[in-house]
Give the backbone structure.
Amino acid sequence: MNPSFLPVLLAAALSLPGAPATAHEGEAHDTPSDVRAAPAEGTAASAPGPDEGAAAQRQADGSVFVPKLVQYRIGVRTQRARLEPLSAPLQLAGVVVADPNAGGRVQASQAGRVEPGPSGLPVLGQRVAKGQVIAWLQPTIGNVERSNQQAELAAIDAQLEIAKGRVARYEQLDGAVPRKDLEAARVEARALQLRRAALSAGLGAREALRAPVSGVVSVAAAVAGQVVEPRDILFEIVDPSRLAIEALAYDPALADGIRSADAVTSGGTLSLQFAGAGRQLRGQALPLLFRVKTPGVALAVGQPVQVIARSARTLRGVALPQEALVRNRAGEWVVWVHVAPERFAPRRVVSEALDARTVAVASGIAPGDQVVVSGASLLAQVR
């Protein structure tokens, strides 16, 4: 037979009905054996396997039956429980504060009227530089005080004229008048001139309000023409990249054993660095200061956060991801344990947070149990 006809005959034989298929034909090696490719258009579908027609359902004892195919589809993952010593957590209520070295306030030192600076009054979110004039404060004085100052100016002017005349006469009588009298007259005239200049400047001089630090304006409580009193807060400036968190601990002994900490906010978790603790109680609690190490997180001064600190004290438990815990119908925390190939049972547990992503389960599961760490919330919805 001509060798060129061999490929044609082989293809015709494989296309005949009833030709046996080779092992693993049409099945991917990296997918479960329950998952098969959909039949080609125009061909009859093969009979379903033992698991393809079954559905997940809850049993009378509270456990759930979940076929292997469903487990694969909802992404069930388990982790073997291991009892070990864990760093004991400490949950604290905290609030975001400005770093004392990267934040400041602009206050009125005297009563006056606010006037715009060289570039106008700053607005919220505007970035300013340290030492920049952001506003002027024009002092306000009453009519009686102004009249008294003007009267004092007139008296100084009269004394200055007399002093200048005395100096002129002494200079004409140079040699006949002692030298010390001439020098004393000159000093008196010069002192009167300086006194008059200082008093005149105080009548109409403006006070420059400067930014104490470089940063962003977080509070703008002044408008043009506003009359303010001493100590009124006009502007607050913070550096968003250098914020801190202040928390309160009701046990002063815990402050010395803190190793690391995290903060839980609505926008995610933050890594914190313990900066120090105060030595004076505030409302029966000890203030603790943490610096934010996670960059690029949007925070606002005064924002409440939950601080989870890890101390030197240890406890024995099983470390699990936070998503392994779900609530049952009674509102209790439970985890799902893989007790059989297609069966999962809930276990009520007692736990506490280790950090923002991990919890420590102290009771409810035994070492070696296969605990569901991914897909637990979907298992809880099986009815």
Remarks:
- The first helix runs from residue 6 to 14.
- The chain has a mean pLDDT of 79.
